[in-house]
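Translate structure to sequence.
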């Protein structure tokens, strides 16, 4: 048994050392001793030849830690260092990673943020919630995760080493075996970008469209187009006048997302929540009749159910969706047809791929795309207010909030939003331009 523990600790120390050398970025690159390695086997060879002292030191730390908490190897084929007192269910045990606190970094160090989802049957949502909570605790992972019987949807942040371990753990879980590294959209960030900590909840849907998956399933979604195929389709729409009259580039996101960044010529519905999308489609069926619709959203998940719902109406010629969403598109085409910033659901609010600013300050009209929360205690709206206006204390979403900043009565929706038309009716495309008068240019 001692020999087995020693062997396992050696493998684990080597693996942990290599994972700490992976850099932040879209491509997998390991940096060590002034050299960059694009293949993990090359990094492993370098570690073996030049870093045996550090790896041995780490191995002894792992062995000492294992003696304190118990080192198990029977369940996974490899060792799992697990504080047994933290396990809430025995069945969670096999899918927790081999990690100790010293190896996953601090919450304030540079790292990355992951965006991912997986539609699949989850027979035990409680198990998945407990597993995700324990996984986050061990790895200093923060973020927001939705679990439902139809799958998993999350955005989380942590160190490079921690997020590597997290991805491997999720991909190895039997519920989510179809996930690959390519399904995780990554960007530079850290745990501190989620001030809420780690929130893991069980819901009826992994993305709230408000319709049961038994009525409209993701399995009935429109075909996925690769980033390259979608780029070509957008190019055709932009340059072909006939296509402009027969195709629609449809943004599935909310108005505050499309306000700071969108595809040129897209129809961006002026709706506040994705749960309004079915009602929006129903109200605008004539607009989509006999059209080829190309849908997109942040990471792809909203298009799965959204395209299925639009298809179910039987009015469109075709319904396609962008695989991997805007996130994947911008990694390939940062200077492509998407202009402005990409809105994200963490404390960064947006990430930049090009220098275009397409939105304006709500107060003075100066170009501005830096969202900040409304300064009112009761409001949850986001505000575009330039630095000059902020110096004048113009920091609320509307005059009412500015006047009643100290009112602590919480509101889900501010009066300035509730006064908007809830579901807009789109005009037919302009004969000259091929896009709707309501389309965001």
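Result:
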């Amino acid at each position: 048994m001692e020999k087995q523990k020693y062997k396992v600790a050696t493998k684990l120390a080597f693996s942990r050392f290599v994972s700490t050398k992976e850099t932040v970025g879209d491509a997998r690159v390991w940096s060590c001793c002034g050299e960059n390695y694009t293949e993990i086997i090359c990094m492993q060879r370098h570690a073996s030849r030049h870093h045996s002292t550090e790896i041995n030191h780490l191995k002894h730390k792992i062995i000492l830690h294992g003696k304190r908490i118990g080192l198990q190897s029977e369940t996974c084929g490899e060792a799992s260092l697990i504080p047994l007192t933290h396990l809430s269910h025995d069945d969670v045990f096999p899918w927790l990673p081999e990690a100790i606190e010293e190896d996953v970094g601090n919450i304030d160090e540079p790292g990355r943020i992951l965006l991912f989802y997986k539609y699949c049957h989850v027979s035990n949502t409680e198990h998945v919630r407990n597993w995700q909570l324990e996984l986050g605790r061990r790895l200093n992972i923060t973020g927001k995760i939705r679990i439902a019987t139809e799958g998993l949807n999350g955005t989380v942040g942590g160190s490079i080493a921690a997020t590597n371990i997290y991805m491997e753990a999720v991909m190895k879980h039997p519920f989510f075996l179809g996930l690959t590294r390519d399904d995780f959209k990554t960007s530079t960030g850290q745990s501190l970008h989620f001030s809420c900590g780690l929130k893991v909840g069980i819901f009826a849907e992994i993305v709230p469209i408000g319709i049961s998956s038994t009525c409209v399933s993701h399995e009935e979604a429109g075909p996925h187009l690769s980033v390259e195929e979608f780029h070509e389709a957008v190019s055709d729409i932009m340059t072909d006048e006939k296509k402009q009259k027969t195709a629609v580039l449809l943004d599935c996101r909310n108005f505050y997302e499309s306000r700071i960044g969108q595809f040129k010529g897209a129809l961006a519905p002026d709706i506040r929540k994705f749960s309004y999308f079915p009602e929006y489609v129903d109200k605008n069926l004539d607009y989509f009749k006999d059209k080829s619709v190309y849908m997109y959203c942040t990471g792809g998940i909203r298009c799965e159910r959204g395209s299925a719902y639009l298809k179910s109406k039987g009015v469109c010629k075709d319904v396609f969706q962008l695989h991997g969403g805007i996130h994947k598109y911008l990694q390939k085409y940062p200077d492509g047809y998407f202009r402005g910033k990409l809105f994200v659901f963490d404390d960064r609010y947006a990430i930049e791929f090009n220098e275009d600013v397409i939105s304006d300050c709500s107060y003075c009209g100066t170009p501005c795309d830096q969202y900040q929360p409304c300064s009112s205690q009761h409001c949850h709206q986001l505000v575009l207010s330039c630095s000059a206006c902020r110096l004048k204390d113009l920091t609320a979403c509307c005059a009412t909030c500015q006047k009643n900043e100290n009112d602590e009565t919480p509101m889900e929706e501010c009066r300035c939003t509730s006064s908007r038309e809830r579901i807009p009716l789109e005009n037919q495309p302009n004969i000259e331009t091929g896009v709707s008068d309501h389309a965001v240019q």
